[in-house]
Amino acid sequence: MALKRRSKVNPNFSMSSMTDIVFLLLIFFMVTSTLIAPNALKLLLPKSSHQTSASAITTISITEDLNYYVETTQVPFEDIEGILLHKFQSQGIEEPTISLHCDQNIPVHAMVRVMNIAKDNKWKLILATQAN
Q1: Domain 47-131 has what CATH class?
Q2: Is the pTM of the predicted complex or chain greater than 0.70?
Q3: Of 28, 67, 110, 127, which is least surrounded by CB within 10 A?
């Protein structure tokens, strides 16, 4: 007696659902990548062959026209120390590290003024440079 199945298993595999998923993922990643805004200013940094691996808690940037920025917020020079003190105290950071981003065309005294703030408060300071 020959028994036969009434429903046969179809060995074919449909790729249409897989391609739909791939296209949906592609669209998702394209949309989310455009939403990410870099948290930096465009500066032409000086070149250096030595790089450090220390991670900074915050950044101070000085543009070519001597505007000072704490992260991406423009602040007058006189307010930098107070803003940083408040930030570090509110986060409970005892030994902060600051990254100083200076345009390569600024006068040295503008950079030294920020370095003196860090020295007076015993903060670590990293001078950001561009790799050679």
Answers
A1: alpha beta
A2: no
A3: 28
* Structure-token match 């200013």, residue found: 41
* Beta-bridge partners for 32: none
Tell me the C-alpha distance between 126 and 121, whole Å. Answer: 15
Q: For residues 126 and 97, is the Cβ–Cβ distance under 8 A?
A: yes
Q: What DSSP assignment string belongs to 46-108? A: PEES----PPPSEEEEE-TT--EEETTEEE-GGGHHHHHHHHHHHHT-SS-EEEEEE-TTS-H
3-class DSSP state of 3 = coil
Could you state, in chain order, the average pLDDT of each consecutive group of 10 residues for the chain (132 residues)? 71 82 91 68 64 76 91 92 91 88 88 90 83 64
Contact 114, 32 (CB under 8 A): no
